[in-house]
Amino acid sequence: MRAFAGLIDSMVRRGPRPGSVEAYGVALACVLAATLLRLLIDLVSPGAVPFVTFFPALLIATLVGGAAAGIVTTLFDGVLSWWLFIEPRFSWVLADKNHVVSVLLYLFAGGLIVWAANQYRMVVARIDEEERYRRIVVDELSHRVKNKLATIYAILRHELRGQPDIWDSVSGRLQALSTADDLLSRGENGGVSLQQILTAEVAPFGDARIAVEGPEVDLFGKLPTVVALIIHELATNAAKYGALSTTSGRVHAGVREAGDTIEIVWHERGGPAVVMPSRRSFGSKLIERSLDSFGGSARLNFDPQGVVCRIVLPAAHASVRKDAAEPED
Known about the structure:
The structure is a single chain. This protein is α+β, with helices and mostly antiparallel strands. The chain has 9 helices and 8 strands. It has helices at residues 2-14, 21-44, 54-65, 67-85, 97-159, 164-184, 194-202, 223-240, 282-289, and strands at residues 192-193, 210-213, 217-219, 250-258, 261-269, 297-303, 306-314, 318-320.
């Protein structure tokens, strides 16, 4: 079923321009294919419904070639079916009231199918247009962020030119921020390494104070962006209020495969004593609700010794990276 839906989607998006010669060519091909198929059925069952093969033909013609191609297919199919398969054959006479009703019902059903298929085409076209617009906006925002980071980088390099140690620390964190932003703007088709996301998001706060352990995991679809937002929120909160707000604080991010899920445990230690907040902040809600639509979860535990966040990712959107080759004997 999914393969069929993918085929229909491909036909709609890659079909010829409506009203073009190619679109009418598709209509003609659908008419011929439906007529030949109906002739083959007629050899086996001469009394079969006259229009049985023509409904799929006009649906395909509309999806691929547009409304005009669908209308042309409907009219030609109706004429050919009347001429070839309705008694008396090879004449323009409808001798039976039932045949008249059949033709009228065919025209009504055909018009309805063409209308519905064309509406679907229009919806897909609007979605594609919105997607292109979203991509342009995302690319523009990414470009502006990079420009602002480059400006900040240049200003700080000038101001800290006499303090090379401080500059080395600051420049490394700015580069880490830029890397994390690049992850968020990646495409959705290829997998993104979970370890890469974790490392990129925590790097601005000091690599030596954060340990990331576990197997290599690839995330797919929109999940990398959501996980990056969650890790960014956890790291930012740790830097403001938690383990990363003091020099002695540490964070351990452990990744493991748990049945048909991937589990990440964010564990803070060595920071100020944690107090249960009186109300959930926007950041906490973001962390705990972002994965609901994926079938995953994220739960915060405000342990007095340090915040613990347990993140569960569904296997449908995440997989442990397997070794490329088996070890030799």
